[in-house]
Write a structure and sequence with these properties.
mainly alpha, 84% helix
C-alpha cells in the first residue's frame, strides 16, 4: 500500500463527510443515549458503557462506512480510482481510518459521560476500538453490494439490528438465539468487557471472544477485496 495515496483519500473523505448531515445523526445518536442513560440509576457503570458502545459500534461502522463506499460507487469515483491505479486496500484503509476516528472519539466521550475511572481508559478503548475496526471492514462490504446511498442505508439496517442482538438476547433465553449471538463481534465484546469489569481476565474466558472478533476482521477484509475486484471487472 502507498500511504501518500491513503493520506490524500483520507483528507478528501473528511471534507466530503463534513458536508453530509447524515454523518452527524449517526455520530450524535449514541452520545444522546449515553447522556440519557447516565442520568438514570444503574447498578454498573461498566455495563452502561458496554451498552452505549454497543450502539455506537452497531451504528457508525455499518451505516457510515456503507454510506461512504456507496456514495463513491454512485458518483463513479471507484471506477476513476481504479483507472488511476488505486488499490482496493488503499481505498478501504483510507475510509476505514475516517470511520475509526469517529468510533474512537465517540467511545472516549461515552466513557467520560458514563464516568468510569481514567485509569481504565486505555484497556476499554483498546477492546472497543478493535471490535469497531472489525465491523468497519464489514460496513465497507455492505457499501459495495449496495446500488446507491439509499439502498446502502436500507441494507445496513438488518446488519445493524443483528449486531445489536446482544441487547435483546436476555429477553428470549433461547439456545439457538444464544448460539447465533455468540458468533457476533459485538457479543464477543460484551463478554470481554464483562470479564474485564469483573477482573476475570483468563485465556479460557477471553480466548474464544477474541477469536470471534479476529475471524470477523479477516472475513470482512476478504469480502471487501473480492467484491471490489468483481466491480472492477464488471465495470
Amino acid at each position: 500500500m502507498r500511504f501518500y495515496k491513503i493520506k490524500a483519500l483520507f483528507k478528501l473523505g473528511i471534507e466530503d463527510l463534513l458536508k453530509n448531515i447524515n454523518v452527524f445523526i449517526y455520530v450524535l445518536m449514541p452520545l444522546g443515549f449515553a447522556i440519557l442513560y447516565s442520568n438514570l440509576e444503574v447498578e454498573s457503570k461498566e455495563y452502561l458503557f458496554a451498552l452505549c458502545v454497543l450502539l455506537n459500534i452497531a451504528m457508525i461502522p455499518i451505516t457510515l462506512m456503507g454510506t461512504i463506499i456507496a456514495e463513491e460507487k454512485e458518483k463513479n469515483t471507484l471506477r476513476t480510482l481504479m483507472l488511476n491505479d488505486v488499490k482496493g486496500s488503499e481505498i478501504l484503509f483510507a475510509k476505514a481510518l475516517i470511520c475509526t476516528l469517529f468510533v474512537l472519539i465517540n467511545n472516549i466521550v461515552i466513557y467520560l459521560i458514563v464516568g468510569l475511572p481514567i485509569s481504565n481508559l486505555l484497556i476499554y478503548q483498546g477492546i472497543t476500538l478493535f471490535v469497531g475496526i472489525a465491523v468497519i471492514f464489514f460496513g465497507a462490504f455492505v457499501g459495495l453490494i449496495a446500488k446507491n446511498q439509499m439502498s446502502a442505508g436500507l441494507l445496513s439496517l438488518p446488519f445493524m439490528f443483528l449486531l445489536l442482538m446482544p441487547l435483546f438476547i436476555a429477553m428470549f433465553n433461547n439456545n439457538i438465539a444464544n448460539k447465533i449471538s455468540s458468533l457476533l463481534p459485538t457479543d464477543a465484546m460484551m463478554v470481554i468487557l464483562d470479564n474485564v469489569a469483573k477482573k476475570e481476565i483468563t485465556i479460557s474466558n477471553m480466548g474464544l471472544p477474541f477469536l470471534v472478533i479476529i475471524v470477523w476482521f479477516i472475513l470482512s477484509f476478504l469480502l471487501f477485496n473480492i467484491f471490489y475486484k468483481k466491480i472492477g471487472v464488471d465495470n
